[in-house]
Amino acid sequence: MTDETEKTETPLKGHERIQAYLKTLDGSPGVYRMLDEQARVLYVGKARNLKARVSNYARPSGHSGRIARMIRETASMMFLTTKTETEALLLEQNLIKQLKPRYNVLLRDDKSFPNILMTKDHPFPEIKKHRGKKSQKGSYYGPFASAGAVNRTLNQLQKVFLLRNCSDPVFESRSRPCLLYQIKRCSAPCVGHITEEDYAESVRDAEKFLEGKSTGIQERLAKQMADASQNMEFERAAALRDRIRAMTQVQTAQGINPRGVAEADVIALHMEGGQACVQVFFIRANQNWGNRDYYPRVGNEVDETEVMEAFVGQFYGDKQPPKLVLLSHPVENEDLVVEALSQKAERKVEIAVPLRGEKAELISGASRNARESLARKMSETATQGKLLKGLAEAFDLKAPPQRIEVYDNSHIQGTNAVGGMIVAGPEGFVKSQYRKFNIKGDDITPGDDFGMMKEVLTRRFKRLLKEDPDRKGDTWPDLLLIDGGAGQVSAVREIMTEMGVTDIAMVGVAKGIDRDAGKEEFYRTGQRPFALKHNDPVLYFVQRLRDEAHRFAIGTHRAKRAKAIGATPLDDVPGVGATRKRALLAHFGSAKAVGRANLADLKAVDGISDAMAETIYDYFHERG
């Protein structure tokens, strides 16, 4: 990539400013950025021919209202030429995700999807949920739309195939079957209740099922059940019946199971009132593995083809595309999108907008879901807007807040202390913006809630001041809700003043008489405390915000405490990762026994080299 330029020599603005760039451009493919007077990126676009594309913006008329506003605000532009048109498309989508320009279609809350993993590094493979990098040896099946979809499938697969889901250290340490064996969810390979050959057959059956080859499995189970019944092995026959029923339940729960579509993502768009909903259904192995809805930021005067191309480009920016992508609307530059997806998948990817047949029925079902989901979302947003307006009136804010931050701390006598921050706005809780803070301050005494809050707020706003000192982004809050009364509000105001942040409204929420919910009192700097009516919707809203902050802080604290309980001294030994830690614990039984072991015993452990054995020995014998 070459030729990145930014030119602001003249005070021109709008189409005249854009016109001045034309003599510097040629017909190369590339990406352009339009910036306002504060150098904020308004729009990122791609072009097969930069000069031809930019010349369209240089015209003084003939634009939609949205594009005309964007042109009027443009004070400068930046250009980046690329070798190919496909490269321009990929760069454009990456920059949109990174810069979040105001006039672009933007996919929000884009999260990774979970998979089912069948491990391959153990004689008795484990089946489990997996999210993230596929670094562990095994077979991966997915993506599933949500953790709930994976958990439901795993739950039923356990009933059918009786595969273990315990970790390797737990497996190695068991001397008798666990509860899952008692409730017929596991065949107890840990204590030898099933041979390695029989367990391997169950693993193969489970993999066939996840690949959509379940007919033969059900037929074989049905024959085994009939044979067991004929031989008067009624308990075994009942167990086989339950396994067949569980397999049927998996297929029933999946709903749509297309016969003619083995692998596809079904993407349907519905737009209404300047808002959009995109439904994505995942079809793998002729099975429906769930769906998820998205609400990209679109605004008015954006057509479906532009939204669909932007969504597809951003959605597959960090995901592996399937062989077939079914769309409800065509995309602009379909040839470029197909080439980009094929490059990412390292195989041919097809895009289709079906009009008849089973594929069209899949699109129709996804479109119906998108339409219904958007209607619910618009209803919820309207209700949320009324609550934010009521909040502004109750707390004398200049306008309904667009970003509310609520803070809470959690600890047990000062141990494993964490701070939690939740965020809410016009669309409800913004969980992708939640943040946890591990309390690090050495000078904080156990139970010092004010000291913890000071550390949390200082870290939060120092980072904001560093990353966005001019407040150009949307990460600055309009309102802070603090758990506490006049003292806490005064102390927090002092902290914020020290950092030079004095224009953010803050309200303390304190339990009132008898500390009962519904009798909360609200505190603001320099004003008398007040309460809201018991049945005021704004009061319920504030309670929900406070309770969500409390839930998040407690959950984070419990996770930290559980991790600390499960930690061992081996975690701090240089070079000892999860695999070596498992090997050492399996060989010696406990971390304490590892610490007492002599050098020769450490060298005898599988996977522990002589040099690593010396490192481990030195670690435990030089600390004291």
How many angstroms does the end-to-end distance come to? 57 Å
Shape annotation: globular
| Number of distinct beta strands | 19
The helix content, as a percent range, equals: 40-55%
Strand content: 15-25%
Mean pLDDT: 85
The rounded Rg comes to 30 Å
Number of helices: 20
Low-pLDDT regions: none
The profile of the biggest β sheet is:
7 strands, mixed
Structural class: alpha+beta
Structural commentary:
The chain has helices at 15-19, 50-57, 65-73, 85-99, 147-161, 168-173, 179-182, 196-210, 215-230, 234-254, 304-315, 334-345, 357-394, 449-467, 486-498, 537-566, 578-588, 591-596, 599-603, 610-622; strands spanning 2-6, 30-35, 41-47, 76-81, 115-119, 127-130, 138-141, 263-272, 275-284, 287-294, 324-327, 350-352, 404-412, 415-425, 428-429, 435-438, 479-483, 505-510, 521-523. The mean pLDDT is 85. The strands form four sheets. Strands 13, 14, 15, 16, 17, 18 and 19 form a seven-stranded mixed sheet that branches. It has a five-stranded mixed sheet with strand order 10-9-8-11-12. A four-stranded antiparallel sheet has the order 1-4-2-3. β13 and β14 form a beta hairpin. α4 crosses α12 (334-345), α13 (357-394) crosses α16 and α14 runs parallel beside α15. It is built from 20 helices and 19 strands. The radius of gyration is 30 Å and the shape is globular. It is α+β, with helices and mostly antiparallel strands.
